Amino acid sequence: MSFHKVIVSIISILATFIQTEFQSKSSSLFETHCWIMYTFYVVLFTYVVAGTTLTIQVRAAAAPPNRGNDNNERVLTKVGLMSGALASTLLLLIIRPVLGWVAFAFWVLYFVKTAYELVHADAFFQLLETLKNAFLQVIEKLKNKVRGQSKDVLPVSVSA
């Protein structure tokens, strides 16, 4: 069973629990849990778009023999799974806040791990090295400019 089926099942089960828990209350979820609901809809939309895009890419890549978009598929899969897991966590925050915050903490840890896996460590260190070299070049140019201006500022002796 794929993770996407599990995520969709969890979201539907939690949505049913929310519906039964809040059906007797006069206030809506948008009044009591406004930021959670708006975030849930954005994350759910991201999950659906990532899943749809991934499905289209997989079907398009199945036709020609050469597949050069494995990295795109990997990123889309991770984005879809992360957004689906976050959507489930947000619903859990509404039903049981303490358990939801614990699940959110685990989601953040997994997100950091996944982001680190997606960004190659070598590329990250190469980027840091490039930024360091650019910063040193800017500092060197500033030093040269200050030294050059200080030489020009010195009084010039005029012989009469």
Automatic annotation (TrEMBL):
Q: Which domain of life is it from?
A: Eukaryota
Keyword Membrane among record annotations: yes
* Membrane-spanning ranges: 35-54, 101-119
| Membrane is among the record's keywords | yes
Q: Which UniProt keywords apply?
A: Membrane, Transmembrane, Transmembrane helix
Q: What is this protein called?
A: Transmembrane protein
